[in-house]
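Re: beginner question about structure tokens

> Can someone show what the tokenized structure looks like for a real chain? I only ever see the sequence side.

Sure, here's an example I had lying around. Input first:
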Amino acid sequence: MSAHTIGQRIRELRKLRQLSVRQLALKVSVSVSLIEKLECGDRNPSPALIAQLARALSVGVERLTGQPYTGAETEDPAQAVIPDLRRVLVTYDNPDDLLTPARPLPVLKAEVDHVSRMRRDGHYGPMGPLLPGLISELTHVALGADDEQRRVDAFHQLAVSYRAVNSLAHKMGYHDMSLTAVERVQWAADNSHDELMQATAGYLRAGAMVRLGSYSSARRILTGLIQEVERLAPEQSLPHAHMAVIGSMLLKLAILEVRDGDLEQAQERLAEARWYAQMLPGDSLAYETSFGPTNLRIHEVAVLIDGGDTEQALARLREWGHEQGRDEWEVPEGTVAERASHHHIDVAAAKLTVGDRQGAYSELVRARKLSPTHTRYHPTVRNTAATLVRLDRRQADTVAGFARWAGV
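And the corresponding structure tokens:
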């Protein structure tokens, strides 16, 4: 097992900042016993608490999570493409010369659609190597177009491609690179003159703020964007694409509110999102949103878990499971794999909190089956797997093998 867990990093940084356990607890408004449990590995911090601790210790979130995870155990195509992606992010408006002419825009669009599907399913290994060349070609087409429609179409595809870079960088733990990618999404969206794409770029920026714990800034952006998308809709009508974009923003606001300590407001945001989900014919992928009844339920559980009401979250899953004739709710087949795997990762951490170690391990296995790369690089997976190994007196090969696979 790795010599450095998140608890050990918290302890080391606390001592480096010359803070006592009590002083750190006061800074993040938690009990002394919780800090002690975190440092000993008896408890794993929530994403919200990680952001609070990072701010209190004057470090980035990645310093606590240990990201990016590099080394022999994690070498794969998604890691190998990072230098090339940095290059295209830097040369975004003045790209390197192409060795051969860019492919026709319809061909490039088909590849962007393929990349989008891989992004939604967390297939970063095969997706990553496609992105540098694809973005370079689209940039040459966009900047060199002598037809306005061709130009805006190319920029639209560029915005979608840069969003894939953002996802890869964020999930792999290259957070500064992820922030740059978000800026490139905004640049391409602005040049596409697609107002919903511009709103989506703002949504991504707000999401980065939520991860960093900048809740008031993210709240202002999201509430302003919702009003803007409503204004953009035709009079007396709200198209499905607009509903999906607004619904996604409301779900992000729900997570924001619970991480900011306001569970009641988070539930209100979920109720608003539920109205939009009920108005849609099903789960939507408009503007890469992945919004609908399924994602709403996933976020309902996530809000309860983030709010510390783990038992209620698990009870909700059992209640929905009875509707399906199962012991526990199963994410419907066809759900975006990355979103589904994230759900199982959250539930694994929740089950570990209530002492259900076998259930936690089963959830991790489900997440791995759905989206291996996403699961392998998720910090919550590493924290959960490390705790399971420490608590497993039998040192079962199944648990230890999973932990080794995850790089613990």
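Each token stands for a local structural state, so reading them left to right follows the chain. The chain has a mean pLDDT of 92.
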